[in-house]
Amino acid sequence: MLGFLKPQDNLTDADRERGLSVMDKQIFAAAGADGFVSAGFLSAFALLIGASNLHIGILTAIPFVSQALQIVAVVVIERVRMRKAVVIVSYLIAYSSWVPAALIPFVLDVPHAGAVTMLLVFVAIRGFATSFVVTGWNSWLRDIVPIGSTGDFFGRRLKRATIAAIITGLGAAVFVDWWKSSASAENEVFG
């Protein structure tokens, strides 16, 4: 059933084209999701649920500190020898961690230190998982993207990522403005 996760010794041109197509689509999802939790939205959310300046500093540092885990990720990927499985599972963990983070105000009283702690835990989980994604993904790209077309591929990918991040970032900003104008002050955290 999960045979597609097993490593292949050789890629056919059809496999390569299918992989490039999936990667082109994946960037919309990844950059779009990142657009929701960047550009101050995550910090504003943290402040609404009770974060202090120290918490904001920790929140900002987590992605950079977790990059050190790429060393562990290299060892795991080399031992497991199933890079695709490690990347896909880690990717799902990383991006699904935003769901419980977004639900914090619905589950816990806010503002509250426990809510901030939960947010920091979910951001740390995302950072940990992302370290595994990035490590496997980079070597995976080297195998899939033909050497003569790396510039075209990455240029197209960056353009799509930028478009997705702009659309979701602006969409989130419009939603926040709408919510602030229509919600009471005590319900502001839910928007």
Give the SSE map.
Blueprint lengths: L12 H24 L4 H8 L4 H13 L4 H11 L2 H14 L1 H5 L1 H4 L5 H32 L5 H33 L9
Briefly summarize what is shown.
This protein has 191 residues and is mainly α. Helices cover 75% and strands 0% of the residues.
Name the helicity range: over 70%
Q: Overall 3D geometry?
A: globular
Number of helices: 9
Low-confidence stretches: none
Q: How would you sum up the major sheet?
A: none
Oligomer: single chain
Folded structure, characterized:
- With 191 residues, the protein is an all-alpha fold.
- The chain has one domain (18-174).
- Helix content is 75%, strand content 0%.
- The chain contains nine helices and no strands.
- The protein has helices spanning 13-36, 41-48, 53-65, 70-80, 83-96, 98-102, 104-107, 113-144, 150-182.
- The radius of gyration is 19 Å and the shape is globular.
- The chain starts with 12 loop residues before the first helix and ends in a 9-residue tail after the last helix.
- The mean pLDDT is 85.
Distinctive features:
191 residues, mainly alpha, 75% helix
